[in-house]
Amino acid sequence: MDYMAIVYAAVILSGIGIVFSAALGYADKKFSVEVDDRVAKVREALAGANCGACGYAGCDAFADALVSGKAKVSDCPVSKSANVAKALGVKNEEQKPKVARVLCQGTTDAAKPRYAYDGIKSCRVAAGIAGGPKQCRFSCLGLGDCEAKCKFGAIEMRDGIAYIDEEKCTGCTLCVAECPRNIIEMVPRDSTVIVRCKNTDSGKLARAVCSKACIACLRCVKACKYDAIKVENNLARIDYEKCTRCGECAAVCPTKCITIEG
User: Fold this and answer.
1) How far is CA 227 from CA 98, 104, 203, 217, in A?
2) Same domain, 100 and 182
3) Nearest to 45 by CA among 92, 101, 97, 109
4) What residues pair up with 164 in beta bridges, in sequence order?
5) Residue 120 and residue 202: Cα distance in Å, rounded?
6) Which one of 101, 176, 249, 261 has the lowest number of neighbouring Cβ atoms within 10 Å?
7) Contacts of 213 (CB under 8 A, 6+ apart)
8) What's the count of helices (H) and strands (E) in the chain, helices before strands?
9) What is the number of structural domains in the chain?
């Protein structure tokens, strides 16, 4: 009897095991999520910076979004769009590469100080204390919020303002979002003529706080033969589509707020 009981128990346990195995196999087929093999290919084509510039948590999430059609190849400013498009199996839409530029020359010599700041090393914090340590309310504060945010080591602080190494800049736009003064902008990488000022105060007020400020004198507008530069709201602005990079505007600028890069 004991022997038969053991046999019966073994048979019952085996039967239960078979039933559970079948159930698990059915559940696996029924509820399994098919993984598109393009996800892995797209992930390999991405830069792998996990910087979040695309609007997603990281490259893995962005790869999933691309394959599911929730994102576009151009949403990632860091990766080479041609490689990503090839991995995704779609036509590449070439985007004109852009680079971050600091539109300020308010160094310690050019920009007049308001007070000596000796607080937390943060532009955002300093900007909230009586308008910041520089009199110009549009100036770079030079305390390194953008430098800390940059994952590519493309930014450093020198003489009171931020400088961007364009060879290292990937165009991720993280520094643009981080700057409390909004003086970092994305511009075409091949542009060489830049208005490095954001001050929209009157010329008199702007010049009183910074020797490099745009004073809206209109000399640049008169010098440009291609209608590529205009003064709007007391500030010179360049139309990069029209600009031929002749440099005439920079040559006549009395404060040298228009520079020629490269």
Assistant:
1) 22, 24, 22, 16
2) yes
3) 92
4) 155
5) 32
6) 261
7) 136, 197, 199, 206, 207, 255, 257
8) 10, 8
9) 3
Which residue range is the domain that position 51 belongs to? Answer: 38-88
d(CA 169, CA 186): 11
Q: How far is CA 151 from the centre of its chain?
A: 10
Asked if residue 178 lies in contact with residue 222, where contact means CB atoms within 8 angstroms, the answer is no
Decide: 129 and 115 in contact? Cβ < 8 Å.
no
The secondary structure of residue 36, as a DSSP letter, is: P
Select from 157, 174, 101, 111 the least CA-distant residue to 138: 111
**pLDDT tens-digit series, residues 47-94:** 887 888 887 888 888 888 888 888 887 778 887 777 887 887 877 776
Domain-embedded: residue 84: yes
> Does 16 map to a domain?
no
Helices (H), the chain: 2-31, 38-45, 59-67, 81-88, 123-127, 145-149, 174-178, 203-209, 219-223, 248-252
Task: Identify whether 100 is part of a domain.
Answer: yes
Report d(CA 180, CA 30) in Å as an integer.
51
Task: Kindly report, residue by residue over 98-151, the tens digit of the pLDDT.
Answer: 999 999 999 999 999 999 999 999 999 999 998 899 999 999 999 999 999 999
Report the distance separating Cα 165 and Cα 147, nearest Å: 11
114, 174 in Cβ contact below 8 A? no
The CATH number of residue 199's host domain is 3.30.70.20
